[in-house]
Amino acid sequence: xxxxxxxxWHLGRSFHRVSLLxxxxxxxxxxxxxxxxxxxxxxxxxxxxxxxAVPPLSAVELFDDTLHRLAGIGVPTVMISGNHDSARRxxxxxxxxxxxxxxxxxxPAGCADPVLLADAHGQVAFxxxxxxxxxxxxxxxxxxxxxxxxVLGAAMDTVRADLATRPAGTRSVVLAHAFVTGxxxxxxxxxxxxxxxxxxxxxxxxxxxxxxxxxLHGCQTLGDRVRYSGSPLAYSFSEAHHRKSMWLxxxxxxxxxxxxxxxxxxPRPLARVRGRLEDLLTDPALERHERAWVEATLTDPVRPxxxxxxxxxxxxxVLTLVLDPERPPQDPFAxxxxxxxDRTDAEIVEGFVAHVRGGTGPDEHERAxxxxxxxxxxxxxxxxxxxx
Length: 388
Hints:
This protein is an alpha/beta fold. The protein has helices spanning about 20-35, 55-70, 85-90, 95-100, 135-140, 150-165, 275-280, 305-315, 335-340, 345-355, 365-380; strands spanning about 1-5, 15, 20, 40-45, 75-80, 100-105, 115-120, 120-130, 170-175, 180, 200, 210-215, 220-225, 225-230, 245-250, 255-265, 270-275, 295-300, 320-325. Helix 1 runs parallel beside helix 2 and helix 5 runs parallel beside helix 6 (about 150-165).
């Protein structure tokens, strides 16, 4: 059976205030043409269909058009909700849509309810595990601790239990939206560290033939049977080095996996340039970036006059300007943003408490209260509500 694995469409997202709607429309055209040209048997979409819980109308219209086109060519689609989606909104009408061959899996209680498709070698069971926010789903899945590894482990236990009841030789595919240990992150993914440690071990998926992952935006392989497709478009300059693609997966009669990358259209290349303004304006090696979307980091010790306008004269598509003046090591005036780089929300909050207390951080009780407050914000965001 031939599968096309994709994820993280983020319909409705812009890139530094530049609309990506036409680029997303081009991707959908490419997706549909790939399904036809490669004789795909099923399309897998591993979450983050939309960029936010309440997407703009243009994104909803594009999603609706995509479903109609996939249904129109008679190729089944299995799709789960991600942490950017509102699971309830995305899942509205799932029962009716399923009749057209589009199988939406957004309810954590349905993790062990597979979509069953067949080829000449027998059945393939597709299990859709939507993004599982620990604080929201721990009771549904019967676990005591609100942690990512616990809830995903419990969901996979139900999958393996159901698979054990299927006829011998039934092949299995799991779609999941999670941060799996060993994956490489980028700046455009929403942090999911609140609600326990963010990452889960790849071993949690043992016992199935293929795992189609979503959440991380770089295409990557965590094992022959566990892969991220990555997003079809770049959504931050940290993805400038990414090769955007989908996985074309051939699932053999005994569950063998052969995967090939299918490149996605690139609307415009990305470039990160760094240096003093005069060097950026005159360096001939940077000529190749003059058509790219550009992030420029200026290292001039003193802010130059009208830097953005001067950069735009050479790089018409410059989108963002970062000022990072050359300073000696251990400079006490190093930026606040630089000091917070790579720190989690919990670490930032606890660091603030220590700062205002003259170095005394929160005790265990206070740390639990802070964690609970962050969890509450996360839960409300997962429900598509505004934080109170």
